[in-house]
Amino acid sequence: MPILNVENLNKSFGGLKAVSDVNIYVKRGELLGLIGPNGAGKTTIFNLLTGVYVPTTGVIELTGSDGRKVKIGGMKPYMTARHGLSRTFQNIRLFKSMTVLDNILVGMHKNVKYTLLEAIFRLPRYYKQESRFEEQAMHILEVVGLAHKAQELAANLPYGEQRKLEIARAIATGASVIFLDEPAAGMNPSETDELAGLIVSLKDEYDLTIILIEHDMKFVMGLCERIYVLDFGTIIAEGNPDEIKHNQRVIQAYLGEEA
Amino acid sequence: MDFSWLTHFDSFVQQMINGISIGSIYALAALGYTMVYGIIKLINFAHGDILMVGAYVGYFCVAVFKMPLILAMVVAVAACGVLGVLIEKVAYRPLRRAPRITVLITAIGVSFLLEYVMVALVGAESKAYPAGSFGGGNLMLGNIAVDIQRLYVVGITIVMMIVLQFIVKRTKIGKAMRAVSSDADAAQLMGISVDRTISFTFLLGSGLAAVAGVMMGAMFTINPLMGMQPGLKAFIAAVFGGIGSIPGAMIGGVLLGVIETVVTASGASAYKDLAAFVILILVLLIRPCGILGKNVREKV
Amino acid sequence: MEKLHTNQTGGPVAGAPENAKKKMPPWLAGLIGLAVIVGVYGILKLLIWTEVISIYYADYLNLILINMILGLGLNLITGITGQFSLGHAGFMAVGAYTTALVVLNTSGSLVSILGGILLGAVLAGLLGLLVGIPTLRLKGDYLAIATLGLGEIIRIFITNTDQKVLGGSAGLSGFPIFTTFEMAFFGAAITFVVVRNLLKSSYGRACVAVREDEIAAESMGVNLAKVKIMAFVVGTFFAGMAGGLFTGYMGIIQPKSFDFMKSIDILMIVVLGGLGNIWGTLVGAIVLGIVNIFLQDLSSVRMIVYALLLVIIMLVKSGDTRFFVWLRKLFNWKKWTPAFLSKKSGVK
């Protein structure tokens, strides 16, 4: 049973159709790739799924771990986050003047149980949860290898580590589905390899479903179990990496372009 | 509330002309806000104070150097144009990549600086242009007496608008302004000098504010804090018409002037200023892009 | 490690004691905090009692403390949460008039005074809630202008309401000067502790996240509207409280005390102390208080100094032309600056 099911998704800006009649399903625990040439509408689909944009038409259905279905199309981002969706951004959006640890803790904010008054009066629940949050956050940082930089400002991290921190922050929300928007952009081959390993281990440890956009074909083909190819706002192919590699339409639309 | 002015045709016409003339001044000042906002996304808080400086330059030209008002206006335009360009160079340009809040605070600082330097230079008390410097008397339209000054204001404003439209739509620098306003980075890559275009925008906006300032000064009195209220009103007019839109600023300015006059004529003059702010808040809440503005979205 | 240190000296005043406290059990940290507050109170009281701080300056100290409350409230809204408000004086007016009316219409006992101040704060906070729900949807500059408009609306409304109720432009008087040093001091202390505790909780982190990047914050599950309104309500609550204390400090209140200039005064404190830095706000209020003492009789010079400070602080802090970058380097800004000029947010 798919964890995420998208039917006839459409989005137009003014007269421009950015996404048309997209049908996608994502299986629980899957590592799914979304590829396509520049401007194909990949990020727009991410924005639609996470609530940044409201779909023009179409249904986005999320199945919770309890089997209950929720229609999340048109929900605000914080609501989709509350239903277990989280993401990273193409152009890294960290909270730059906050520490690495605080970035992670913001991800956990939606799970906060103590009230504002309990925080102001420093009641026991505040301390209890703060220390638990901090433990969990430090654990995530250890997994991604940033624990030793917990007190540094996010802005001072090198590029690759900022990418990792963004992934860690997404996981900290407790999400079950994570969207990664070009996680390997701007990384060198050895960093990319390391990132691929990290994504797999995070997926296992936190029991995640991951959907990623990436231009690095080697990265996508090596990592993803299944791939959708997008061109001019429509899905032109779907299948495992081997099928995609040999799909004539994909080669024409996408790979052919580079040759 | 007293709406009797509505039932008398002559007082209705007079009030409308009053409203349109005040509105013209707002519109002239609003153009500066709208152009600057369109191009660097900054509410130039100091804009109203440039208007004030214009009024003072005009005053000294007329009262001390005995110039005719029209010449005084030219001098004021030149002086304010230079001042506007200078302010942008010194205070705003270094902050072009800074958070908006930083630039806004700077603009507030510049505004106060202009006001209180003027207080230090000429004193806080009000001054009036020499009597008759802006014409006077009434023009009879049938049996309706219309203040000639007000007609001058409307006339001069219309001329300014035509000139501005010409510059923006028909000249090379106008084209550059529109290009920078729609995408500064792309314009830069196309070989347009963004810095020069922004300077020119400040020059133009400040010049228009100077015209408004001289006319305001000649009609009423001047003091170093006189720019604050019309500055705010003009900003409201710009938002009302749709910030970033030049025709919007004109429409917004005139509408605001008329609405204020209607409120005043109806006997609620104490609430005249309230009307402007209420309009502002309603517009921001109901249609933040204003009458003619376009919605913009942030790229994710 | 060395690099890490220089990066963190952004808020030396804020940073040092926080890190030390972390290793302490919470009850001990709380106790030490309380001891510090009582200690500062004791020292100031002793200085006033021995007239090291003369009566004139002791009176002035109350005003500085009230300004601290205003600054802390505005810093929460503007510095920490990033919502530029230019109408803080309007909310202060609500508290001031409420307190004045309560005191005028009751016995004027300590209980009614404190009750009046509390009621004023609550009403200001409520108004903040009412006003915040629609306006906080606006971004940046629009919000600034809308709040400016609201502040002006409040003032014009007070000026033009029936004179028998709110006194019109002449204002309200006829109540004693009731604000004592204790009220002002503990008012400021409470405000500081509340804002600090808020800041160091998940709610405070959410506020900073909203300031840093709304889209990212929202995608992490932060309800933008809720966080902004929370900050606004807490900030306006304290503006109301400060208004009440201001009433008792002045002995007379007039609408013109709460105009746009007053909002700028408060903004000035926050900017001088560093946007987002709550220790800085305290320093800012003191520094500005001292500047005001010196420039009291030269109000136009005072305003020129204010204006120049606003522009220069902004330019030196973030100007990106060669001159300002050079200037920043010349003074090695981050290393020696006191917290009140640093760029850091004040969160840890």
Largest sheet of chain A: 6 strands, mixed
Report Rg of chain A. 19 Å
Shape descriptor of chain A:
globular
- Counting helices, strands and paired strands, the structural category of chain A is alpha/beta
**Biggest sheet: strand arrangement of chain B:** 1-2
Which class best fits the helix and strand makeup of chain B?
Answer: mainly alpha
CATH architecture of chain A: 3-Layer(aba) Sandwich
Strand/helix succession of chain A: EEEHEEHEHHHHEHEHEEHH
**Domain module tally of chain A:** 1
Oligomeric state of shown chains: heterotrimer
**Overall average residue pLDDT of chain A:** 90
Helix and strand element order of chain B = HHHHEEHHHHHHH
What's the total number of strands of chain B? 2
Percentage of residues assigned to helices of chain A:
40-55%
Provide the CATH topology of chain A: Rossmann fold
| Alpha plus pi helix count of chain B | 11
Summed up, what is this model?
With 300 residues, chain B is an all-alpha fold. Chain B contains eleven helices and two strands; from the N terminus they run H-H-H-H-E-E-H-H-H-H-H-H-H.
Summarize the structure in words.
The complex is a heterotrimer of chains A (259), B (300) and C (348). By secondary structure, chain A is of the alpha/beta class. Chain A has a single domain, classed as P-loop containing nucleotide triphosphate hydrolases (Rossmann fold), CATH 3.40.50.300. Chain A has ten helices and ten strands. Chain B has a two-stranded antiparallel sheet. With 300 residues, chain B is an all-alpha fold. In chain B, 70% of the residues lie in helices and 3% in strands. Chain B is built from eleven helices and two strands; from the N terminus they run H-H-H-H-E-E-H-H-H-H-H-H-H. With 348 residues, chain C is an all-alpha fold. Chain C has one domain (23-278). Helix content of chain C is 76%, strand content 1%. Chain C has helices at 2-8, 12-22, 26-49, 55-80, 88-105, 110-135, 140-160, 163-166, 181-199, 202-212, 214-219, 224-250, 260-273, 278-294, 299-318, 322-330, 333-336, and strands at residues 172-173, 252-253. Chain C is globular, with a radius of gyration of 20 Å. Chain C starts with a helix and ends in a 12-residue tail after the last helix. The model of chain C is unreliable at 1-21 and 335-348 (pLDDT under 50). Chains B and C meet through helix 4, helix 9 and helix 11 of B and helix 7, helix 13 and helix 15 of C.
